[in-house]
Amino acid sequence: MHPHAAPAAPAAPASPLRVFLLDDHEVVRRGVRDLLEAEPDITVTGEAANAREALARVPAARPHVAVLDVRLGDGASGGSDHEGVEVCRELRARTPELACLMLTSFDDDEALFDAIMAGAAGYVLKQIGGSDLVTAVRTVATGRSMLDPRTTARVMDRLRRPQPSGAPELDRLSPRELEILQLIGEGLTNRQIAERVYLAEKTVKNRVSAILSKLGVGRRVQAAILAERLKEQQVSRTV
User: Fold this and answer.
1) Rounded CA gap, 212 and 196, in Å?
2) Is-contact 20 158, C-beta < 8 A?
3) Which DSSP symbol is given to 14?
4) Bridge partners, 43 (sequence order)
5) What is the DSSP letter of 171?
6) First vs last C-alpha separation in the chain
7) What is the CA radius of gyration of the chain?
8) Mean pLDDT of 203-217
9) By C-alpha distance, which of 43, 1, 50, 45 is closest to 26?
10) pTM
11) Tens-place pLDDT, residues 119-128
12) What are the CB-based long-range contacts (under 8 Å, 24+) for 48-54?
């Protein structure tokens, strides 16, 4: 699977690129805000210190990108260790076009996997360089996925673990859709898939949309994760 593989990205949002920040540390928020607002085409339209504030303030801020801390209070105040992931899931459910970039101090493979399945467009460590963070924000704003290379391997390790309940969501797909899903898992674009299965690119685009809908996911990278599970199931059946 190639997490970065994606169809041609749509044009970037009209300037300025609006960003919302969620982090329970004021110093971190201030640092990220100063970094982003130093860019002429980026503006921070809102920020929050906890999940409740974020869910209340994002609609009015109308951001293109939400930069979300994975851990809020490290669970010390009754929140979950990955409360930022839950915020991502809720925001994506309310505003599917919003790109969520997860920011964390911890190289946590479970949080990474959960964030991707919650619809996050990217996941980077706080140790990332300033210019790289700006690049990550710009990348997810165009609709592409952004995974820190140091953590991508952990996703693959997570996928290769036995899945006790299998992947019942795959049962909703037709044989043709399963074939296309496998090609998504190989990182192919819609055009490349169309050439492989001898269909019009527009037809493939519609099929991919149907697949994402049936699987209950919003991004190709999430579908690719399920494709990896499908592959593991097929291998286990032949052993």
Assistant:
1) 20
2) no
3) S
4) 18
5) G
6) 22
7) 18
8) 82
9) 50
10) 0.63
11) 888 888 888 8
12) 48/20, 48/21, 48/22, 49/22, 49/23, 49/24, 50/24, 50/79, 51/22, 51/79, 51/83, 51/84, 51/86, 51/87, 53/22, 54/20, 54/22, 54/87, 54/91
CB 70 within 8 A of CB 26: no
**Contact criterion met (CB below 8 Å) for 44 and 67:** no
- Partners of 44 in beta bridges: 19
Contact 211, 181 (CB under 8 A): yes
Query: What residue ranges in the chain does DSSP mark as E strands?
Result: 17-22, 42-48, 65-69, 99-104, 122-125, 146-147
> Tell me, what amino acid is at 88?
C
pLDDT at residue 107, rounded to an integer:
67
Cα 18 to chain centroid, rounded = 18
Higher pLDDT, 20 or 187: 20
Whether the upstream peptide bond of residue 16 has omega within 30° of 0, thus cis, is yes
Q: Supply 100's token pair.
A: 């969520």
Please return the burial class of 1, using the count of CB atoms within 10 Å of its CB with bins 0-12, 13-18 and 19+: middle
Q: Indicate the pairing of strand 146-147 with strand 122-125.
A: parallel
User: Which amino acid is residue 179, in one-letter code?
Assistant: E
